[in-house]
Design goal:
This protein is mainly α and 479 residues long. A two-stranded antiparallel ribbon has the order 1-2. Strand 1 and strand 2 form a beta hairpin. The longest helix has 31 residues.
Length: 479
């Protein structure tokens, strides 16, 4: 009879990821399609090679400063959910919830959808029937026209495959992440090696003469009238977004071995490693193409233009393969990490209850993975995910600033707590990150108040949801 009342043991995460796995999650989540396209966009605003390289160096250092601050928080609180937990503990449950709400409904799911479509676009180079040009369904309702193309279906398939892989254990997800991250870095390294050995470029492209008096952007049209500082700020924002998603590994903190040491190390190693990859890649582009020529590359596909100049027509196909590898690995990292946030929210009674359960065998948040996969697929089908990303692009940076500031808040709030790792260069390093990031947040709001205002509205819509789940939690406690 005693067995009748036996309480089933709660399923918990298992720490199976090492330092290499954690570092690959950081690097793989950051390196997507941006490095193959963003340098051309940036060159339009800042067609000066020395400053182009400086942008990537400064962006990398700033990102590393943020990672250093996150290291202290993760070492102090190595819990599933990462940034959600930090914001909850430093400020309030509602702020942590608003971060998780925005992450689920817009930021992470939107990125997953966008990266999956990017994969599909380049698959279309080899299989035209699976491109965006292949329309499957088209109709119009009350003046609103909807078009479904085959690339969207490919994107959904990618999301589905990677979601399934990550349901079968964090180790399977990590194997895919390691394989594709190493592959994408190797592909970039191969392009660099070939460019500098047989590319027939010119080092003078990297050292063009420059004067502030004669400076002016050359693309896009709205940038041509910008002054140096405005152009520098906009170009820097593109670099910072290419460095985004570096904090993904903090979401899976409970699944990393010796998290007090390995997560801070992986954050710093990963962000600095990506900075090195980005800087060398941009030096390669500039070695082959002058900055002004980079800015005018069709569709901003600068990596394809460089490869085509080296390999001929074959170059575009080689870069298409490299981007497919890069985007597939990037999406895997995004899909793997974020469900741990939704799991933590559900455990706090602030999300769908089923999201707070782990699979008894695989120890993965299967329900959270499925919820994320379904919503990402909806955004892929809707065709509105790019707009959603535009509206809330500043939100990711805003939450990052608040999280770095949490280092100061928590040192005052919990001075007695053990901190196995402390922020290097405190307080200068986190202050520098906060000041520079705030400059870009203000610039985004001033430059596009409509989009940023709508993005803030999407975040604030989470407040009624928080009230609903909070009340439901209280009712459950009383039952």
């Amino acid at each position: 009879m005693a067995q009748t009342f036996e309480v089933q043991k709660e399923v918990k995460f298992e720490a199976k990821l090492g330092l290499f796995d954690a570092t690959m999650i950081v690097m793989g989540s950051m390196i997507g399609s941006g490095i193959f396209i963003a340098p051309s966009i940036m060159a339009g605003y800042m067609p000066v090679p020395q400053f182009l390289i400086l942008l990537w160096v400064v962006g990398g250092i700033l990102t590393a400063f943020g990672a250093i601050a996150y290291g202290e928080l993760t070492a102090m609180m190595p819990k599933a959910g990462g940034q959600y937990v930090f914001l909850r503990e430093a400020y309030s449950p509602v702020l942590g919830f608003l971060y998780g709400w925005t992450l689920f409904f817009v930021i992470q799911s939107g990125f997953i959808a966008a990266v999956a479509i990017a994969f599909a676009k380049y698959l279309g180079v080899f299989i035209p029937a699976l491109s965006e040009e292949k329309v499957i369904l088209s109709f119009e309702i009350f003046g609103w026209k909807y078009i479904l193309n085959s690339a969207q279906l490919v994107g959904i398939a990618v999301i589905g495959i990677l979601t399934c892989i990550n349901c079968f254990g964090v180790v399977f997800g990590a194997i895919v992440q390691n394989l594709f991250t190493v592959s994408k870095i190797a592909a970039i390294a191969l392009l660099v090696l070939v460019a500098f050995t047989v590319g027939n470029g010119s080092w003078s492209n990297l050292f063009e003469s420059f004067s502030f008096e004669n400076f002016h952007p050359i693309a896009p049209p709205e940038a041509i009238s910008m002054g140096f500082l405005a152009a520098f700020a906009v170009a820097m924002s593109k670099a910072l977004f290419a460095y985004d998603a570096w904090n993904s590994v903090t979401f899976a903190a409970e699944e990393v071995k010796n998290p007090h040491k390995n997560i801070p190390r992986s954050l710093v190693l990963g962000t600095i490693g990506v900075m090195i990859v980005y800087v060398i890649a941009n030096m390669t582009y500039l070695y082959i193409l002058p900055a002004k020529e980079m800015a005018l590359v069709q569709d901003n596909r600068v990596a394809a233009a460089v490869a085509e100049k080296i390999f001929g027509p074959l170059g575009a196909q080689l870069i298409a393969i490299a981007i497919m590898i890069s985007t597939f690995g990037c999406d895997n990292g995004l899909i793997l990490a974020a469900p741990r946030v939704y799991y933590a929210m559900a455990k706090d009674g602030l999300f769908f209850r089923g999201a707070g359960k782990l699979h008894p065998k695989y120890k993965t948040p299967v329900n959270s993975l499925i919820l994320q996969g379904v919503w990402s697929s909806v955004l892929t089908l809707s065709g509105t995910y790019s707009a959603l990303l535009t509206y809330t692009a500043f939100a990711s940076l805003l939450f990052n600033v608040m999280t770095v500031f949490a280092v100061f808040v928590l040192r005052k709030k919990y001075p007695e707590r053990e901190r196995p790792y402390k922020t290097w260069g405190y307080p200068i390093v986190p202050i520098l990150y906060i000041l520079v990031a705030l400059f870009f947040i203000i610039y985004i709001i001033v430059g596009d108040p409509k989009s940023s205002g709508f993005g803030l509205l999407l975040i604030l819509i989470g407040i009624p949801a928080y009230v609903y789940w909070s009340r439901a939690k209280i009712n459950n406690l009383h039952e």
